[in-house]
Amino acid sequence: MEGIIAIWQRDLIKFLRDKARLFGSFTMPILFLLIFGGGLSGTMETMMTQNLDVGGDFNYIEFVFPGIVSMTLLMTSVFSAMSVIEDKDFGYMKEILVSPISRVSIAVGKMAGAATVSTIQGIMLFALIPLLGLNYDWISLIQVIPFMFLLGAALSGIGLLFASFINSTQGFQLIVNIIVLPMVFMSGALFPINGMPGWLDVIVKLNPVTYGVDVMKKIMIDVDQLSMTVRETMGLNLTVFGRQVTVFEEILFILAFTALVIAIATLSFKRANA
Q: Largest CB tally within 10 Å, which of 16, 60, 117, 253?
């Protein structure tokens, strides 16, 4: 535990001291929020209020915001693993490897650090809620924080897996971008994922970000107060094999995925740094 805490603390201190990284992490989420929130909000709100007759208080940005937070968790968690490559270049990783710390502890410490950093950045986005005129229950926001950490830990394992056998930051960024962007667009974070072709629907259901986005929307938005038509239109009725999944089942899936990526990343880390 001392080794895990030490690695976690180091990554957290590096994040807090890097003001440019802290500022730059908000650029893309806010950009997507402006593009999708400002560009599609008028169209979606008109469709929902007129065609589906849901009332004039429908706010499309309220549905997009949890997806933006999830996207921030994904990008921050995955790209935080790039510190492994930097540690290799500066020789810090060799110092860790010759220490009595196990490779599992190194992987868990890195994942905990990335999850903490991504959770902090996700919470900082909550400061935009009053500016956007959104009406989330603060109790729901507090309840979603532990899940944000869990999702950040699961997604950081993906970055750690690639960082374990890639030796250049340029190669890591290229490969990760190829993985991250499709995961964002095929998760329901920015727009509903209903009515997709069969082969694409399979990819969506295998995407862990899909379940993370769905859980965050169900926690942050009062889904029970929405009509079935609105839920189906906005993709809030996620089904697998024709059966609607519950929040508990989605959390179990994220937990299983987290355990899986920890195991795979640890094995890959052992072989790549043996």
A: 117
33-48 per-residue burial string, b: 16 or more CB within 10 A, e: under 16: beebbeeebeebbeeb
Q: Angle formed by the axes of helices 103-125 and 60-80, to 10°? A: 150
What's the distance, Cα to Cα, between the start and end of the chain in Å? 22
* Digit-coded pLDDT (tens) for 151-182: 988 888 888 888 777 777 777 778 878 888 88
Integer Rg of the chain from CA:
19
Q: Which residues contact 197 (CB under 8 A, 6 or more apart)?
A: none
By CB atoms closer than 10 A (0-12, 13-18, 19+), residue 200 is exposed
Per-residue pLDDT of 95-145, as tens digits, reads 676 666 777 777 788 888 888 988 988 888 888 888 877 888 888 889 899
Note whether 254 and 211 are within 8 A (CB): yes
